[in-house]
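Give me the fold.
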Amino acid sequence: MKIVVGLGNPGDKYSNTRHNMGWLFLDYLSEKYSFEIKKKTLDSLVGETNINGEKIVFAKPLTYMNLSGNAVQKLKKWYKVENKDILVVFDDIDIPFGETRYKLNGSGGTHNGMKNIVQMLNAKDFPRLKIGIGGIKHEKQDLVDFVLQKFTKKELDELKNDIFIKAEEKFNTFINS
């Protein structure tokens, strides 16, 4: 069994914002693999499916970004998985828009949601899939305003038709590990 956690914030206010990249990617996967992420449990919206004969749990924390670790910790304990079986998907301002990176461990960096997960798990040894949102912020634009800004229609189309396809390759690396 593996768990894929997409970081984001609940509520219509945050729908399609840059900071909800993890939720958007999970929506893409749920459409592709025909399952729903809607059961409220463990401070998350949860859905599951089987891929290559293995149960995969998908979770969107409802704790708001900066407290994502609370939900991840509950999911880990409930499903009794090791850190290596938890993939966290999130936006990264330090990576150019459209680039994706897959790492098996690391710090929380500048991302408050990731910092909280590292703190709550008391570990850095869990896989993560970073999807870049950097390089398009205006120099004088406040960082919080930028990450909470909604994607344009053009950007959303690019996510669904190109970027998420690349990210899915890295997701498959995790699933097949």
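The chain has a mean pLDDT of 96.
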